[in-house]
Amino acid sequence: MSGMRPGIIILREGTDTSQGKPQLISNINACQAVADVVKTTLGPRGMDKLIFDGRKVTISNDGATIMRLLDIAHPAAKTLVDISMSQDAEIGDGTTSVVLLAGSMLKAVKPFVEEGVHPQIIIRNVRAAAKLAVQKVRDLSVPYDINTKEGYEMLIKCASTSLNSKLISGHQDLFSPMIVEAVKSLNDADALDDIKSLVAIKKIPGGDVRSSFLVRGVAFKKTFSYAGFEQMTKKFENPKILLLNVELELKAEKENAEVRIEDPEEYQSIVDAEWQVIYDKLDACVSCGANIVLSKLPIGDLATQYFADRGLFCAGRVDDADLKRVSKATGGTIQTTTNGLYDGVLGTCGKFEERRVGDERFNVFEDCPQSLTCTMVLRGGSEQFIAESERSVHDALMVVKRCLKSKAVVAGGGAVEMEVSKYLREHALTIEGKGQLIISAIAKSLEVVPQQLCDNAGFDATDILSALRRKHSQDSDGKWYGVDIAEGSICDTFESGVWEPSDNKCNSIAAASEAACVILSIDETVVNPRSQDPGAAGNASMMQQQKPLSNMMGNAMDAVNAQKGGSRSGNLGNGVSYLKGRGGG
Q1: Whether pLDDT at 569 is above 80
Q2: Strand ranges for 196-342 from DSSP E
């Protein structure tokens, strides 16, 4: 009788479940497929991806951007998107490497899963290997003093290495010093953590990429302007700057406002009061001694003309982020009222001018007392090119920030991965049991970075990897040897100036191993139906099939009702119950 026992259903109809070894292998295959998509973008010879999402076209080889735009449906493969995003937020660069490493680790341990090794044994050894690898990278890293000339050159080389694989790699001599200068000014003011809000990147289509420049202060696009704007003074030396969050516009009566008057002349006094309110505000702005008035809210045509007549410059509808940057740079305080303004709330800068850049006009504040903010103005032929330039500059900014924090670098070009791989292989020989095989597999998986660098450059990966293994294992000075992209051989990448912050590699290995462990720890995948209504997936199809039955039921109930002297209600629609209310026949 036990064989006749009915199955107990605990998941709602339409739920898809898969479990055991097959679904674990399926998850690993899905992650490998995602890694295969981005692997061709790695390194200086990496290719770009063109992604069209139905609205706009994006051309990029930035791993985080591609992962974000790929609409990945597989629930386990989305883990790789998460680690790419975390690498982008934490380090800024290495977003492709981290996905590639995670995919390679999973590929390396897949044979053990197929042969029946328990996932927990694999996870334990993967974590142990990752811990050893991260410690080895820290031991290998070369510390430096950022305040010396050598330290400055180290930052320039790290920025250049980050830009190497980008679209603007041919213009490192222009962008690297700009990026280092922008980040260093924040470091001197101990404001590195606010880099995203204090360093602005403005994009202006047109012109040559070499026309891009850095403003040591704040620059923003000319805002919407009213009549009288052209009569304003467009250039000031040491101006006083008033920052407002106040609307300087003549306000009409609110809709449906009601004013009771007994004499028509009283209406004029109401109109005069409205004008007086705006004039009082404008007088307060002028009398406080300000030369430049900026507001987050609109500054109307009356106020624009009023300020122009008195030799002031004004701009309304200034973006909130730009206004805050001006506040930080000039030392001014944003005011929410025009009452009680005094010198202490005004900011200042060495020079202000309205400058033409391409087809746009920019308001530029330079020589600010607080050297906190910088603005990078990027030029380029097409919108896609400038957007990719912005992503490249963002990555380099984050890398230099990380260099200033970690104050230690390692060589790039696959050198550090090869050295850590050699170390793990040697360590694996000192332990017994299955762990030896798993750690050896993880050691081999780290070689995916130099291998992919070779593949993307069109070199023979087998020959170059053999040469690298020989150099790292036999020569005492071979620890910094990596792939020479220019010559198609191997070279000392540390001497070549291919440097990366040690935190970049540590974070990549740690995040990739964690993602691999998360995938390996999943023993069952449950995919619920899309609708939140219990059983909706099943009910919808049943309703479709039962449509004729519903009409038959309606006809039958009508017939019974008519026999009793009641009224006919017509056919019942889908899901409509037959109810006889008080008002029924």
Answers
A1: no
A2: 199-205, 213-215, 217-221, 235-237, 240-244, 292-295, 313-315
